């Protein structure tokens, strides 16, 4: 194999590796409550699972009712045993429509945010 061919193969392999990591983005994998769910009883906590570890200082969860008013949540934290999980305790919620709003930053400084609507019967 010629030097040019070896360099071309090595360059391609290096570029392919850089491209795949450059396009790898953190994302929400699951939530409890689930997006769009209708629950028979109000949840006591929110649990969000991501595909990467989070930076606790730059990650948060808020809750809003159908009237867009903020509802206080407590104990928002990244799980010490699994840093890809963020949780928050919810107050007692009456029947109605709600939106969990979250923002998070991963260890590699990737920022993301989203919203999870759910209904309590």
UniProtKB/TrEMBL annotation:
Signal sequence, renumbered to the chain: 1-24
Annotated TM spans: none
Cross-referenced SUPFAM superfamilies: E set domains (SSF81296)
Lineage top rank: taxon: Bacteria
Limits of the CopC domain: 25-120
Pfam families for the chain: CopC (PF04234)
Identification of the protein by name: Copper homeostasis periplasmic binding protein CopC
Source organism (scientific name): Telluria antibiotica
Lineage: Bacteria, Pseudomonadati, Pseudomonadota, Betaproteobacteria, Burkholderiales
Gene: copC
